[in-house]
Amino acid sequence: MADFRSFLRSKRIAAEPMQPVIDPAGWSSENLGSVDDFSYAITDRDADELVAGVAAFRRHGAPIEEVSRENFPLQRFAGVLADVRRELIDGRGLVMLRNFPLQRLDREQQAIAYLGLGAYLGKAMSQNAQGHILGHVKDLGGNYADADTRGYMTRAEMRFHSDACDYVGLLCLQTAKSGGASRVASSVTVYNRMLAQRPDLAAALCGDLYRSRSGELNPGEQPWIKHPIFCFTQGYFSATGLGAAIDKAQKLPGVPPFTQTQQEAIALYRTTVEACAIDMDFQPGDIQLLNNFVTLHTRREFEDWPEPQRKRHLLRLWLSDPSSRPLLKVVREGRTGRGVQLKGVKLIAPLDVTDAAAA
User: Fold this and answer.
1) Are 182 and 335 contacting, i.e. CB atoms less than 8 angstroms apart?
2) How many CB atoms lie within 10 A of CB 63?
C-alpha cells in the first residue's frame, strides 16, 4: 500500500469566499487514485495492541460507554492513529483502515476495540434519540421517504450527505448479497466546480438552508436547523451536505419554500456531486473514516441476504474533535458539537442491531 499520509506532501492556501479553494481535501475521482493510496493495513502487532487494550479496559470494570484513551492503552498504533487524525484534518479527509481483527474478538470485544480506536481520534457522540454511541447501519425496514426516518435504517440508495460530527467511522461486519457500495466525494471539489460553472449558485449555498432534525429534538426546539452549506472560517473552507434532510424540512412548519435560485443551486450541487464521486466496496474488517466537513458520503441501494446473521451490517462511530477544522459557531455549537444528545437520555453502546431497531 502507498503511504496514506498526504498531509506530509500537500499544502493549503487560506480560503476566501467566492475564490477557488486550494486544499489537500480537494481531490477528484481522476486524481484520488486507488483505495490502497489512502489505506493503512492494520498489522499483527497493531491487532495485538487492540486485543491487549480490550483486556486492559475490562480490568477497569467500566461500562463500554466509558472507553477512553486513559483506559484503553495503545503503543505504536497510537502513533498511527495520530497520523490518521492528521490526515483527516490536514490531508484528503479520507482514510481506510483495513484488517480490523474481527475474528479475534467477540461482539462485545469488537465494540470495545472499535470505541477504543475511535478515542484516539475524537470523542464518541450520540447518534440518535436513544443515545447510541455505537450505531448499527442495517436495513431495519425503514421508509427513506418518511420525514422521521434516517437513511441508515433502510436499504435504499441515499442522497449524498454529511453527518453531524467531525469524523464518521464505518466498520464493516457483513457485506450485502449485492450492491451497497460506499460512495464518497470531496466537498471542496464540488464547491470549486460550482464556482467555475455558476458562481451565483455557489453563492446561494453560502446562505442559510433549513434541514429537518428527523424528529430528534429537545422540548422547545424547532424541528429544523438552519445554516450555510458552504462556509469560510479563519481561512478554512468547510461544508455540510445537501442530503434528504433538506428536502424533508420543506414539509415542516415555519420553513419557507426554496427560492428559484436555491432550487437551481441544489440541482447543480447534486449533479456536480455525482460527477465528483467514487465508489468503493467494503470488506469485513474495513473501517472507512471521513472528515464530514470536506467529504460527502452515501451508498448504493443493496439486496440483502435472507439469513439474519448474514445481513449487511456496519458499526458506526460519530466522533467530535473541537481541535479539528475551524467551523462557524452555529455549526460547532449546534448539532455537530453534541450529536443527537437529548436531555435526560443516557449514552449507551448497543451490541446488537435489534437493540437499535427503534433508533
Assistant:
1) no
2) 10
Listed residue (163, 154, 156, 160) closest to 122, CA to CA? 163
Within 8 A by CB and 6+ apart from 2, the residues are: 33, 36, 37, 38
The torsion of the CA quartet 227, 233, 237, 242, rounded to 10 degrees, works out to 0
- Give 207's contacts (C-beta < 8 A, 6+ positions apart): 228
In this predicted structure, the answer to whether residue 218 has a pLDDT above a threshold of 90 is: no
pLDDT of 337 > 70? The answer is no
Phi and psi at 180, nearest 5°, equal 80, 15
CA distances 201 to 103, 131, 193, Å, are: 49, 37, 11
Higher pLDDT, 175 or 169: 169
Exposure letters 245-266 (e unless 16+ CB within 10 A, then b): bbbbbeeeeebeebeeebeebb
**Nine cell digits for residue 191:** 464547491
What span, in angstroms and rounded, lies between the C-alpha atoms of 137 and 151? 9
Say what the pLDDT of residue 147 is.
47
- Residue 79 grid cell: 502513533
Rounded to whole angstroms, the Cα distance separating 261 from 125 reads 35
Long-range contacts for 349-355 (Cβ within 8 Å, ≥24 apart)? Answer: 349/64, 349/65, 349/111, 349/115, 349/132, 349/133, 349/134, 350/132, 350/134, 350/136, 351/107, 351/108, 351/111, 351/134, 352/107, 352/136, 353/136, 353/138, 353/140, 353/313
